[in-house]
Design a protein that fits this description.
The protein is an all-beta fold. It is about 0% helix and about 55% strand. The protein has one domain. A three-stranded antiparallel sheet has the order 1-2-3, with no helix packed on it. Strand 1 and strand 2 form a beta hairpin. It comes from bioreactor metagenome.
């Protein structure tokens, strides 16, 4: 997880941002479907962009 910084919102509250990235193996979750036979890779990258506001 990477801290992206903070800004002041329109109402004066603080908003902070983060980015989280995780690589998983789809075969670990029994997702082995490849109907076209085109050779889909086994790795899946999940990226989350998060913002949190302090009320």
């Amino acid at each position: 997880m990477v801290y992206g910084g903070s800004v002041k919102g329109k109402d004066g509250s603080e908003i902070v941002g983060f980015k989280a990235t995780k690589k998983i193996n789809r075969l670990d979750y029994n997702i082995s479907f490849d109907s076209e036979g085109i050779g889909i890779g086994k790795d899946v990258i999940i990226t989350l962009y998060l913002e949190f506001k302090n009320n």
